Amino acid sequence: MIDPQGEGAYGVTYGPIWGNPTAPIIEIDLENIDEGLGLPCDDCNRPANRATCWWCVGRQQPFQHRGHCQTFLYCCDCDNDHPNDEQQCGECGWNIHNLSQLQVLTWVVGHELGHTVLWHQPNGGHHSGATTYDCLIWQWVDWRVNPPTEFCAQNPGCQTRWKLNP
Amino acid sequence: MTRRLCITCWAAGVLTLMALASPPMRFDRLPPVAPKEAAEKLKQAQALLEQGLSPELAYRLAYEVYQKHGVVRTAWFPLWLYRQAKRPLPDPNDRLAVIGSVVEGGHGLPLSMLRKGATSIGLLFRASCVLGNYEEIVKWGEMLIQAGNESYSILKTVESARLALAQGIKQYPYRRSSNRHTWRPLPLKFREEDYFILVPLDQACTVLGLGCTIQPNLKMAGGKGIRVTKPDAPNIVYRLFLGRPVVERLESGRGHTETLAYAPYEEGGVVWVPFYWLAKQAGIRWWEVRSGKIYVAPK
């Protein structure tokens, strides 16, 4: 991590196993969570004429709808506040499955609890790889429709990666 | 249309898209602390971006710092906190000291939430995103990644910018504010603090057509219950909290916590609130300060 704010991190864990002379402490960054989720998609249900989305330009698909780049129809957060402007598409957030705030916080806090006891080698204690996807200590928070709810209880490949602080 | 996202907000969102959940905090990889004069520029640049003001100036300020000092960081508390604190505050650049102060009960305020921070290249990356310059996004994004920031969001943003460049697209059609000659000044006093434009809540609500109540409530932070409503959305109530950079949005009985870039505070009986947030609630997309007045674009 380079940024003192934790550029984009939803939570940070401090503690003796990281070389910090404190008891384990979890710091949740509501601001990053808030920004990461963004606003819910507000279907204005009106066709867009000349909409472009930053995220979609490289994909040559001008509209963003519910977090996906598309080539047709409607957009989220229609923006027609300029009298001589054609309607634009705003960008909606990434909470495309409408996870509740409780689900999101449970996910982040659960992940951080793992860091209070797990050894941080390798990969900062994160599990990575396909077989570890459905685990609270998986390395990314991608706001999927079914958030992980446990630490690898059902996945032997994942269980072998558990290492406590030696 | 009050719920649209401005490009600034969106860029901030993309930055944190699918963020690395929780890198354990390692202090040995932090860049050096910026000298005072550079720190001020970074602070100003961040405030510009967070208020949806000039990303061009934000970029320029951060670039000046980068040219002179390279990759540096800074952190700060809001100035009002220093005026209200009864004991010396920890050094905001010392994150562990801030956390320690919070754990000890400290100052009765969420210091870690009030602490803000930035780096030179982080701001350059953010400003480039707002400006929609794909080459700059790739340049600063790669630098962030090489410096150890392995946020998935940055990887994805850089990947997207590379895709655009590969197709010969160098610039997202960044929408600049409309003709400033049509903007009107608001009859509203304000103060600028920490490079944020702050306004008295009650007066601002009157001017902007929002509904506001400020009532004594010992159960609420700062002893005041603060509510803001919008005339076109009677089922939504926003609750603000003194000294807390959060807003609770109550909609049809359901609550959702959002964050503010600057915490409201009370001083001399006046509740000061960041103007950018109130403007957003009032449906104002563009605004600026010139000649000592706040000018807003027509709705």
Description of the structure:
- The complex is a heterodimer of chains A (166) and B (299).
- Chain A has helices at residues 30-37, 54-57, 101-117, 156-159; strands spanning 11-14, 25-28, 43-47, 63-65, 68-70, 74-76, 78-79, 88-89.
- By secondary structure, chain A is of the alpha+beta class.
- Chain A folds into 2 domains: 11-36 and 98-159, no CATH class; 39-89, no CATH class.
- Chain A starts with 10 loop residues before the first strand and ends in a 7-residue tail after the last helix.
- In chain A, 44% of the residues are buried.
- Chain B has 299 residues and is of the alpha+beta class.
- Chain B folds into 2 domains: 7-77 and 115-166, Serine Threonine Protein Phosphatase 5, Tetratricopeptide repeat, CATH 1.25.40; 180-296, Copper Amine Oxidase, Chain A, domain 1, CATH 3.30.457.10.
- Chain B contains 11 helices and 14 strands.
- In chain B, strand 13 and strand 14 form a beta hairpin.
- The longest helix of chain B has 15 residues, at 36-50.
- Chain B starts with 6 loop residues before the first helix and ends with a strand.
- At the A-B interface, strand 1, helix 1, helix 2, strand 7 and helix 3 of A face helix 1, strand 1, helix 5, strand 2 and helix 7 of B.
Secondary structure: helix percent of chain A? 10-25%
Strand order of the largest sheet of chain B: 6-7-8-9-10
Gyration radius from CA atoms of chain A, angstroms: 20 Å
Structural class of chain A: alpha+beta
Describe the global form of chain A: globular
Largest interface pair: A-B, 66 and 80 residues
Chain-averaged pLDDT of chain B: 85
Short description:
Chain A has helices at residues 30-37, 54-57, 101-117, 156-159, and strands spanning 11-14, 25-28, 43-47, 63-65, 68-70, 74-76, 78-79, 88-89.
What does the secondary structure layout of this molecule look like, with pairings?
The complex is a heterodimer of chains A (166) and B (299).
Chain A: E1 11-14, E2 25-28, H1 30-37, E3 43-47, H2 54-57, E4 63-65, E5 68-70, E6 74-76, E7 78-79, E8 88-89, H3 101-117, H4 156-159
Antiparallel strand pairs in A: 1-2, 3-6, 4-5, 7-8
Chain B: H1 7-15, H2 36-50, H3 55-69, E1 73-76, H4 79-84, H5 95-103, H6 111-114, E2 116-119, H7 120-131, H8 134-146, H9 152-166, E3 184-185, E4 191-193, E5 196-200, H10 201-208, E6 211-216, E7 224-230, E8 233-240, E9 246-251, E10 254-259, E11 265-267, E12 270-274, H11 275-281, E13 287-290, E14 293-296
Antiparallel strand pairs in B: 1-2, 3-14, 4-5, 5-12, 6-7, 7-8, 8-9, 9-10, 11-12, 13-14
